[in-house]
């Protein structure tokens, strides 16, 4: 897969973009992007892709300093989230390296099309951190250079028989030179795309391309595009969900003009899907029931003018409806991971661990799609396939674990020793667990080859060696060796010789029992249920004795006389055969054979034991669960099959699934098993098999579904918030890890120091992260702990490191008066007053309010006190509520006081008095007046001065909000007569009566100038504003200021501890119109001391000083 490569550019040259205003970098400079923020690696800024090729962008994020997993978004333009476009054209991948803690994100565009060109952005966020990187894709059309055959230029046109086909002498002939028109390189560069600059420079031999581009930028004038056909163009792009309707709208200049709509360059015809409308100047194209085929570029054409847009169709997220199951198989078995998705034809990506799986010819993975079902098939599993397999869609994720173990062959039926007579048939039979296993037979170490008399069969799990017409040389040790396993099964073939002796005519009967073969002990025969039992008993006697077989300890109680059927007796000369076809449990018991003839009788008793696979285990249930495990217990089977139990095999599956996964291949002897490696929050079921020497029982009934859930981690940051004589208030934070079981609440426990018995403080679970433990003994040291509880049980406790002594903590009363109440509190009549004043103190202080030295009237003012504050409330303020309110906070003989001055205003002030004109000169008149006698119980905020010409008698405002009691009216007309009036203002408004109105007066046409007398302005330096002591925090710049007057202008000298401060850059001295400032940059504790400022001129000097204290940062934080 080709990696994205930035467009080539000359060394030290940036990509010039049309319309850029930034200057190009100077020669020799290189523009490098330093990675900052969260990104370790970003996509290249400019990429040129060839249409039809694949391109991949990579971004890497370092998560070592992040508290949460980062979230990555790939965007096109400003807002289009490309996550909804994931599919065959765009693919996204995320991998994580646990060693380096680096996330790698990839965006792959398959078969780039021109519509993919544009600006892109990748944005990563993690909690309160974010970072983004922008890049641009340019798409070029695929071009194929014509490769001419160089030898064709040298072919002869009229070659003879003895002449060659090529004529190289043509190179020496003079050829006519074609005159080609001169090409203006400047015009080429003006009209070319920036990605083609280097190609043009190479073709036309340009050496100073960088210098040409600098001059070209000055020459380029970007003319604004003006459309003569469109008033409003289409938006740059639209986004719509699949199946919804979208409307493309534009406005044209001519309301009667006809427009054409194009899709990917092809004209759209009106239909039920595409509806085109014209309403005045508005032209609309409506696309109904959008599909993925509607994701294209659209154009609206008016004559030769066009406007473009792009429509993005968002696919609905595909969810996974059936999760993936776990597999536990042996080497060579077939594995099928199957899931179901919400929509047919959805794109599913399969991963093994962090590696994406692809369908290749040589790959052992096969992918199958059947409607909504998607299957990953592994034909023959190997040990390399062990791991976690993932399936991803654009709206879901599931995973399943594959465990593969080596093959182990289990012998279900061993070979039994045989004793046969001449001409009889001998058959060795064994059964193994795998029906595909082949093997070889050996006699005394030599391989047995098939012949007409010796045959070997393999049917299912059974392997047989059949020898017809047994001969004495057939006796020996026979062995069966399975192919591919270090295992062998052996048995012995005994040849029974028939000796002919002279027997008297009267010979009592005799039973000859063969104790070899399948007899485990004297007169005991063991048969596997379902197998055939054949007992051949040799009988001698003259005359031939009569044989009777019966079941039971007493003979002839239940004689077996059938010669056909499942249980039968077959008689031959000197041989009685007792046969049981398909042995069952009911066939177990004592069998008696009785032989009689005239010479006597003989009896023998045999015990036939039927062994079978055990019954299934019972009462399978889950007793406890953990985060990824569960403990399973069960009862042994009622019937062990007649053979001791070897152990058990366990299987599990997810609820709703039909696929059972083996948990162990070696038998497990205990009846308690802890199943691990499960997924928290998923329901599971378990079942158990019992195993004995015969085989494996049927499965037990499935257990009730259970869910692996872990308790939460312990609560964090357990602290003591408050302590009294009998209570203790605790506070904590939620556990860091809660898990799928959620959090039901908390249990608070305590015990005395030295005791081990913890007492529960709350009867019901506490849902909040705070609790008051009551009824504690005074003076005792108590340990506290808090436990989080959920469906899985209790978490580990969070324990206070030190015991808490239960006693009241004395704290002096302190009133925290808000800043706005430290000055006069002014409100209008009718306003609502609600003052909240916090305080502190222990035990609970008593708060009392006084007004003007007297207790407040509860009918006029409401007061509410709590443990931490007091509230003064007046629903509707009146003027009689004005006054000084004092708050007294008392704890026994300790107290604190605070005063709040409230002023209620409800009346506008009276008019100013004694308004007069003090001086008239030129076009100006000076006015003075005195404040009103009634200020309305509020400070006068200013005055409004108006004038009126006696000719028009219209009033005009000269000044508003004038704060002084005098002013100068300017721009008067000389020779006119004027009247003046003044309004006073306070918080309630302007005075109602402007009277008295100043009588009119005239502005003289001539003015006499008083003789100028220069005043003596000389004065001794005098500080009008002294330096003030300050206390600041180290490291924060500060300044001290004062003000001085004096003439001639005095010289200013700053001193620290009586030493003149010179040109130290740490100090900056300023003098602005007599305001002197000394700035100290980031002072340290050594900069503290006495600072003084001295002003000196010819008439004398003056000096002021202050003290500057520098506090450390820690001390500053404690005071804060």
From TrEMBL:
Molecular-function GO terms, alphabetical: actin binding
Alphabetized UniProt keyword annotations: Actin-binding, Cell adhesion, Immunoglobulin domain, Muscle protein, Phosphoprotein, Repeat, Thick filament
Domain of life: Eukaryota
Gene3D superfamilies noted in UniProt: Immunoglobulins
Coiled coil start-end: none
Domain Fibronectin type-III: 616-712, 714-809, 911-1006
Transmembrane segments: none
One BP term from GO: sarcomere organization
Boundaries of every Ig-like domain copy: 224-319, 407-479, 509-607, 813-901, 1021-1109
Residue ranges of the region described as Disordered: 1-35
Any one of the GO CC terms: M band
Stated name of the protein: Myosin-binding protein C, fast-type
């Amino acid at each position: 897969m080709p990696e994205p490569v930035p467009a080539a550019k000359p060394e030290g040259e940036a990509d010039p973009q049309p319309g850029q205003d930034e200057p190009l970098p100077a020669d020799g400079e290189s523009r490098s992007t330093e990675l900052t923020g969260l990104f370790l690696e970003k996509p290249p800024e400019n990429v040129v892709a060839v249409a039809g090729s694949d391109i991949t962008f990579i971004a890497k994020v370092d998560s070592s300093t992040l508290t949460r997993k980062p979230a990555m978004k790939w965007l096109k333009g400003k807002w289009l989230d490309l996550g909804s476009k994931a599919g065959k054209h765009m693919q996204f991948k995320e991998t994580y390296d646990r060693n380096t803690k680096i996330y790698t994100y990839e965006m792959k565009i398959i078969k780039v099309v021109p519509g993919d060109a544009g600006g892109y952005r990748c944005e990563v966020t993690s909690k309160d951190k974010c970072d983004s990187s922008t890049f641009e894709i340019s798409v070029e059309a695929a071009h194929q250079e014509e490769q001419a055959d160089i030898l064709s230029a040298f072919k002869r046109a009229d070659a003879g028989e003895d002449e060659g086909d090529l004529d190289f002498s043509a190179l020496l002939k003079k050829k006519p030179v074609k005159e080609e028109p001169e090409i203006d390189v400047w015009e080429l560069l003006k009209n070319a795309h920036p990605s083609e600059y280097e190609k043009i420079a190479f073709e036309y031999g340009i050496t100073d391309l960088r210098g040409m581009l600098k001059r070209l930028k000055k020459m380029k004038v970007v003319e604004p595009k003006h459309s003569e056909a469109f008033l409003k163009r289409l938006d740059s792009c639209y986004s719509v969900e699949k199946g919804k309707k979208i409307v493309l709208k534009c406005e044209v200049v001519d309301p009667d003009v006809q427009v054409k709509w194009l899709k990917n360059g092809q004209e759209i015809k009106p239909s039920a899907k595409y509806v085109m409308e014209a309403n005045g100047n508005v032209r609309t194209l409506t696309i109904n029931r959008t599909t993925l085929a509607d994701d294209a570029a659209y154009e609206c054409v008016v004559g030769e003018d066009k406007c473009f847009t792009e429509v993005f169709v968002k696919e609905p997220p595909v969810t996974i409806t059936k999760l993936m199951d776990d597999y536990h198989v042996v080497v060579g078995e077939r594995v099928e991971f199957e899931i179901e998705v919400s929509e047919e034809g959805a794109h599913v990506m399969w991963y093994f661990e962090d590696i994406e799986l692809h369908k290749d010819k040589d790959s052992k993975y096969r992918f199958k799609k059947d409607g909504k079902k998607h299957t990953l098939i592994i034909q023959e599993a190997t040990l390399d396939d062990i791991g976690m397999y993932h399936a991803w869609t654009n709206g879901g994720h599931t995973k399943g674990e594959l465990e593969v173990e080596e093959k182990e062959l289990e012998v279900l039926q061993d070979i039994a020793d045989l004793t046969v007579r001449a001409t009889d048939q001998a058959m060795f039979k064994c059964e193994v667990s795998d029906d595909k296993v082949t093997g070889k037979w050996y006699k005394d170490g030599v391989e047995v080859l098939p012949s007409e008399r010796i045959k070997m069969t393999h049917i299912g799990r059974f392997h047989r060696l059949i020898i017809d017409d047994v001969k004495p040389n057939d006796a020996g040790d026979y062995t069966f060796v399975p192919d591919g396993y270090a295992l062998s099964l052996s048995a012995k073939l005994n040849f029974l010789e028939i000796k002919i002796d002279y027997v008297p005519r009267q010979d009592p009967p005799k039973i000859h029992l063969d104790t070899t073969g399948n007899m485990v002990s004297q007169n005991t025969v063991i048969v596997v249920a379902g197998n055939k039992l054949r007992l051949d008993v040799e009988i001698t006697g003259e005359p031939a004795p009569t044989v009777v077989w019966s079941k039971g300890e007493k003979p002839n109680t239940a004689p077996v006389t059938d010669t056909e059927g499942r249980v039968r007796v077959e008689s031959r000369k000197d041989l009685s055969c007792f046969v049981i076809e398909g042995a069952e449990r009911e066939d177990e018991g004592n069998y008696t054979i009785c032989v009689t003839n005239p010479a006597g009788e003989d009896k023998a008793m045999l015990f036939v034991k039927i062994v079978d696979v055990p019954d299934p285990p019972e009462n399978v249930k889950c007793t406890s669960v953990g985060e990824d495990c569960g403990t399973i217990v069960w009862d042994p089977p009622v019937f062990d099959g007649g053979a001791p139990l070897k152990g058990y095999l366990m299987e599990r599956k997810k609820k709703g699934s039909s696929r059972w996964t083996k948990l162990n291949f070696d038998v497990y002897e205990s009846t308690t098993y802890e199943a691990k490696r499960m997924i928290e929050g998923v329901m599971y079921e378990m079942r158990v098999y019992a195993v004995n020497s015969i085989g494996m029982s049927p499965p037990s009934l499935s257990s009730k579904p259970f869910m692996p859930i872990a308790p939460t981690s312990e609560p964090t940051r357990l602290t003591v918030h408050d302590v009294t004589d009998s209570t203790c208030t605790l506070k904590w934070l939620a556990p860091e890890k809660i898990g799928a079981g959620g959090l039901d609440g908390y249990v608070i426990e305590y015990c005395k120091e030295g005791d081990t018995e913890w007492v529960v403080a709350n009867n019901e679970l506490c849902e909040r992260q705070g609790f008051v433990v009551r009824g504690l003994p005074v003076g005792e040291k108590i340990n506290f702990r808090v436990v989080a509880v959920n469906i899985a049980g209790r978490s580990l406790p969070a324990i206070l490191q030190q015991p808490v002594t239960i006693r009241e903590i004395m704290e002096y009363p302190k009133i925290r008066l808000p800043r706005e109440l430290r000055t006069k509190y002014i409100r209008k009549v009718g306003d609502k007053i609600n003052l909240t004043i916090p305080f502190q103190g222990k035990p609970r202080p008593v708060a009392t309010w006084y007004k003007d030295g007297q207790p407040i009237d509860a009918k006029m003012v409401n007061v509410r006190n709590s443990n931490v504050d007091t509230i003064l409330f007046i629903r509707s303020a009146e003027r009689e509520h004005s006054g000084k309110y004092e708050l007294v906070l008392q704890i026994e003989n300790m107290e604190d006081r605070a005063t709040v001055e409230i002023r209620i205003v409800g009346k506008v002030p009276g008019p100013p008095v004694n308004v007069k004109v003090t001086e008239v000169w030129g076009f100006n008149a000076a006015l003075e007046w005195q404040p009103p006698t009634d200020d309305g119980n509020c400070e006068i905020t200013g005055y409004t001065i108006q004038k009126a010409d006696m000719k028009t008698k219209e009033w005009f405002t000269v000044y508003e909000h004038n704060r002084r009691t005098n002013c100068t009216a300017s721009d008067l007309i000389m020779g006119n007569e004027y009247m003046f009036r003044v309004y006073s203002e306070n918080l309630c408004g302007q005075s109602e009566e402007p009277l008295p109105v100043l009588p009119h007066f005239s502005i003289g046409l001539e003015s006499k100038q008083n003789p100028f007398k220069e005043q003596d302005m000389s004065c001794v330096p005098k500080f009008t504003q002294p330096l003030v002591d300050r206390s600041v925090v180290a490291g924060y710049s500060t300044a001290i200021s004062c003000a001085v007057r004096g003439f001639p202008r005095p010289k200013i000298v700053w001193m620290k501890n009586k030493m003149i401060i010179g040109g130290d850059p740490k100090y900056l001295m300023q003098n602005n119109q007599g305001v002197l400032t000394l700035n100290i940059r980031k002072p340290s504790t050594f900069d503290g001391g006495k600072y003084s400022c001295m002003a000196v001129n010819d008439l004398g000097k003056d000096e002021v000083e202050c003290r500057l204290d520098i506090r450390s940062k820690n001390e500053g934080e404690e005071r804060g």
